[in-house]
Specification:
Largest sheet: 5 strands, mixed
Radius of gyration: 20 Å
CATH architecture of the largest domain: 3-Layer(aba) Sandwich
CATH topology of the largest domain: Dna Topoisomerase Vi A Subunit, Chain: A, domain 2
Number of strands: 7
Number of domains: 2
Number of helices: 7
Bound molecules: zinc ion
Structural class: alpha/beta
Helix content: 40-55%
Strand content: 5-15%
Shape: elongated
Length: about 200
């Protein structure tokens, strides 16, 4: 059993996704034993990234600039908007190389029992953006979970007045699956074969 500062380090490492007690202990020991320079560099790099990353003022992607590289890229199709749950999803979609529009990050999925309504998925900002940009197609690239489905239904109903075409990813994605765990090829195909809601 670790005590003192080492126990504190273990406790904090355990909060990271995928890190259990054993891994946390091994990492804590690794950091304080032979790799002190690397450990301090890691600490600095965590602090720098955490302090400097913020949500893009247009699309909510986590970025180190006020406006992210996607929003400021003039070569991307402004009339095509892909709506995702989080920044990680943006990078998954980018990896497929099948999308050249812009993005919008909700940061949440609707879940009334958890108190997550339209305001918590940045819906008011989304609707202003859609009206202002004369968007031709909105792609709802959300996980087909219960929350994902209700968010898709809500957004499709609310946006239909302002957008000609509203699509969602094809059913190549397993129901209840998460797009984070879908491989690049499957996600790329789901994007190509997207269909109207
Ligand atoms: Zn942006």
């Amino acid at each position: 059993m670790f005590t003192g500062l080492l126990a504190e380090l273990e406790k904090n490492l355990k909060k990271l996704p995928g890190i259990g007690s054993k891994s946390a202990q091994r990492l804590a020991m690794f950091l304080i034993s032979n790799h002190q320079d690397d450990a301090l560099k890691l600490a600095d790099s965590i602090r720098d990234a955490v302090e400097q990353y913020t949500n893009c003022s247009v699309c909510n992607i986590l970025t180190e600039y006020e406006i992210c590289k996607f929003c400021s890229d003039a070569h991307r199709n402004e009339q095509l908007l892909c709506i995702v749950e989080n920044t990680q999803d943006v990078f998954l979609i980018e990896n497929t190389q099948e999308f050249n529009g812009k993005y919008y990050v909700l940061n949440n999925l609707l879940s009334p029992i958890d108190g997550i309504g339209p305001d918590e998925i940045s819906f008011p900002q989304l609707i202003s953006l859609v009206k202002e940009r004369e968007i031709e197609e909105v792609v709802l690239a959300l996980s087909p979970s219960a929350e994902g489905e209700s968010t898709i239904n809500f957004l499709a109903a609310e946006l239909t007045e302002f957008v000609q075409k509203i699509t969602r990813l094809s059913t190549g994605l397993p129901f209840g699956g998460d797009i984070e765990y879908t491989n690049k090829l499957t996600l790329g195909n789901a994007l190509i074969r997207r269909y109207s809601v």
